């Protein structure tokens, strides 16, 4: 028979060994769960934010998704900047060929039932003349058209108004149109600026009815 004291010692040793084995297992499990010993994966970089163009702001303060006006090309925009050629208080040009300077102008010569203004812009042999007239002479298009003499005339329009363009008897090109009932205008340019005539006429600003 085995003595009881020896059997009791063996039992305690078995219990201690089991506890030690269990503790070792728990420690190993905890280490692997925490990621100890794993190779760290490189952090993924977040994609850069998309560039979003701000919406255009209209003059009334509201936002609208429209193309900036500056993205739309205009003929001769570099030479038009800052131009304000006044013919009279209510009639002016916003475009003139580069290099021209005002060389004359004022109110037109007195005439019954007619008032208005004129101006001339020139440099060497290049010139632009413009005149606006108010009164019964511009009561309708045909009446005003017959007031201006031109050669080889053909019909056209200026900003939607009825007009005629042709050669001036004294040289150069001329265009005449009815701005509105009671207001007519004409512009004459030198031959060297004949290609600019329509652009100058199209730049006219006449606030009332424009």
The number of helical runs is 4
Low-confidence stretches: 49-81
**Helix and strand string, N-terminal first?**
HEEHEEEEEHEEEEHE
**Could you tell me the mean pLDDT?**
76
Distance from N terminus to C terminus (CA atoms, Å) equals 129 Å
How does the overall form come out from the CA principal axes?
A: rod-shaped
Query: What structural class do helix, strand and pairing data support?
Result: alpha+beta
Portion in strands? 25-35%
How many β-strand stretches?
Answer: 12
Helix content: 10-25%
Radius of gyration, whole Å: 45 Å
Strand order of the largest sheet: 5-6-7-11-10-9-8
Largest sheet: 7 strands, antiparallel
Q: In summary, what is this structure?
A:
By secondary structure, the chain is α+β, with helices and mostly antiparallel strands. It is built from 4 helices and 12 strands; from the N terminus they run H-E-E-H-E-E-E-E-E-H-E-E-E-E-H-E. Mean pLDDT is 76; it is low at 49-81.
């Amino acid at each position: 028979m085995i003595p009881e004291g020896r059997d009791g010692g063996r039992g305690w040793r078995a219990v201690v060994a089991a506890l030690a084995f269990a503790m070792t297992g728990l420690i190993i499990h905890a280490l692997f769960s925490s990621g100890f010993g794993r190779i760290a994966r490189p952090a993924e970089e977040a994609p850069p934010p998309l560039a979003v163009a701000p919406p255009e702001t209209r003059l009334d303060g509201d936002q609208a998704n429209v193309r900036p006006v500056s993205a739309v090309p205009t003929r001769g925009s570099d030479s038009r900047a800052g131009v304000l050629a006044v013919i009279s208080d209510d009639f002016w040009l916003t475009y003139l060929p580069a290099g021209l300077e005002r060389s004359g102008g004022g109110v037109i010569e007195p005439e019954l039932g007619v008032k208005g203004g004129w101006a001339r812009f020139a440099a060497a042999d290049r010139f632009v003349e413009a005149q606006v007239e108010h009164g019964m002479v511009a009561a309708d298009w045909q009446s005003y058209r017959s007031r201006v003499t031109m050669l080889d005339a053909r019909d056209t329009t200026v900003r939607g108004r009825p007009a005629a363009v042709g050669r001036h008897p004294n040289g150069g090109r001329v265009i005449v149109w009815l701005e509105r009932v009671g207001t007519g205008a004409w512009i004459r340019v030198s031959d060297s600026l004949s290609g600019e005539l329509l652009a100058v006429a199209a730049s006219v600003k006449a606030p009332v009815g424009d």
